[in-house]
From TrEMBL:
InterPro entries: GDSL (IPR001087), GDSL_Est/Lipase (IPR051058), SGNH_hydro_sf (IPR036514), SGNH_plant_lipase-like (IPR035669). GO terms for molecular function: hydrolase activity, acting on ester bonds. It comes from Ziziphus jujuba. The lineage of its organism: Eukaryota, Viridiplantae, Streptophyta, Embryophyta, Tracheophyta. It holds the Pfam family Lipase_GDSL. Residues 1-20 form the signal peptide. This is GDSL esterase/lipase 7.
Amino acid sequence: MAMSVVVSLISILVASTIFSQPNAMSFPQELLSTIGTAVPPSSSTSLSPATSSILGPPFSNTSLSPATSSVPRTAPPLVPALFVIGDSSVDCGTNNFLGTLARADRLPYGRDFDTHRPTGRFCNGRIPVDYLALRLGLPFVPSYLGQAGTVEDMTHGVNYASAGAGVIFSSGSELGQHISLTQQIQQFTDTYQQFILSMGELAATDLISNSVFYISIGINDYIHYYLINVSNVQDLYLPWSFNEFLASTIREELKNLYNLNVRRMVVVGLAPIGCAPHYLWRYRSNNGECVEEINDMVMEFNFVMRYIIDELSQGLPNSNIIFCDVFEGSMDIIKNHKRYGFNVTTDACCGLGKYNGWIMCISEEMACSNASNHIWWDQFHPTDAVNAILADNVWNGLHTNMCYPMNLEDMVT
């Protein structure tokens, strides 16, 4: 009984925080600039038979310490390091060190991870960059705030991602502290400076220019800003104009990374959150139909980003930038769920309310017994099984071709 009372109290607190309108927040200065019009290219999805996703060796790494686990390898890594910038889709423990409600430092988060313990990953197991690190021959990448700060800890990569973070600085602020896109790039700048001081400018530049940067951010600017109409943003910006603003801001940040000698970038588009359990609950979907008006915004943003990535690739000498449309890969999984082995497509494995979409996952008792047959782990995040499939697609389009103009494997081999 005591447990149920505690869960109820926490649920009320979280719900009131997440769904409150932060009217006191000021309208971001970034949106005051006029954004030019971009013409989106066409997009298509191709289907391919599902095959087994990669199975990596066991790790003992957690978000609270550097990735020290050894991995049996017969060949050297394909790249020196993997650096990650983003939000909760790739956060491996940054928010464990912040004052925020957006935390995944308790069970059942991480119950199916290699250590069967919560690490700060918003999943029952691995996130996409874990699988990609294995593909690259690297250990799991530690969070920036979760490692000791020595150069040795960071030479195989650093994960700067922070749950709740967005392109707009204030996106997600109602949840508490987070590290925005601009702040994460500043953290990388600090890391780069440490490399230069430790190994010299030439060696540091060589490491950075040959490493892979994985960027997955933007969804919180919809979830925690546009869709809840902070500062009446919807009255000032139609969805298309807001999409252009976000994409144009990301374009400038990618240029900043290029100026820091970053040459290999994987930019990940937005997932179909209109199909996420939270919005099925919030928009009162009758039979689990996705919320089209939300998914339309996501598709438009992805179209603009794909156009911008193509433009950047042509304009930045020696750059190698790919765009991976996770919307395409995710919708392929949802539409062909039986082929992938999923039989629960609308309900989250862990949560409360219809579709388990009302409250975030805060208790082991709220979780289903088997997450592997679920597409969604909690309100917004996919299960480990989905992450494995999407990582396969980023690597070589194993299940669905969703990366343009090439896959990650083509970039590094």
